[in-house]
UniProtKB/TrEMBL annotation:
Keywords: Hydrolase. SUPFAM superfamilies: Thioesterase/thiol ester dehydrase-isomerase (SSF54637). The keyword Hydrolase applies. This is PaaI family thioesterase. It is an enzyme of class 3 (hydrolase). Its EC number is 3.1.2.-. Residues 58-132 form the Thioesterase domain. Coiled coil: none annotated. One of its GO terms (molecular function) is hydrolase activity. Pfam families: 4HBT (PF03061). InterPro entries: HotDog_dom_sf (IPR029069), Thioestr_dom (IPR006683).
């Protein structure tokens, strides 16, 4: 059934609402980034990094790697959960090469779990198409209803 305004319904509405939730998070004011959820269990975050994200030796600091990999895996998992906000309970990172400024994509993918705990992984790809890092996370359903979060809209504008 299509909503009266002609907007998305069902899973599509959930994906757009999660994208809205991501965009509304105050932390994302520090990162030029955009989340898209094309299908259940899949997410993609395109972001731009610059010198503000460098460590003292002139490359991107590990916090940027963690943030984008965790977010990509998290949203891939939360795309399968329509009622509750997930919480990261563990996350493992593998850094494969240093990253400089420029565009980067983090791709998330659900791996397993449906009830209370979900596992998802993510990888970061630089502008040349090389993988620069990957991670795997464990996510647990919280008591926080998605519908109660300001950024989550059941019928996004």
């Amino acid at each position: 059934m299509t909503p009266p305004d002609g907007g998305p319904s069902g899973a599509e509405a959930h994906y757009r609402s999660l994208e809205s939730l991501y965009a509304s998070a105050p932390i994302n004011r520090l990162f030029e980034s955009q989340l898209t959820i094309p299908a259940a269990g899949v997410s993609r975050i395109a972001f731009m990094l610059d010198e503000r994200h460098f460590h003292a030796a002139g490359a991107i600091h590990g916090t940027a790697y963690f943030k984008m990999l965790d977010d990509a895996a998290f949203y891939a998992a939360n795309s399968l959960v329509t009622d509750r906000f997930l919480l990261t309970t563990a996350f493992n990172l593998l850094f494969t090469r240093p990253l400089g400024p420029g565009p980067v994509v983090a791709e998330g993918r659900w791996v397993s779990g449906h009830r209370r705990v979900l596992i998802a992984d993510a990888r970061m790809i630089d502008a040349s198409g090389e993988e620069v890092a990957r991670g795997t996370g464990t996510f647990m359903k919280s008591r926080i209803p998605l519908a109660g979060l300001d950024g989550y809209r059941s019928t996004p504008a």
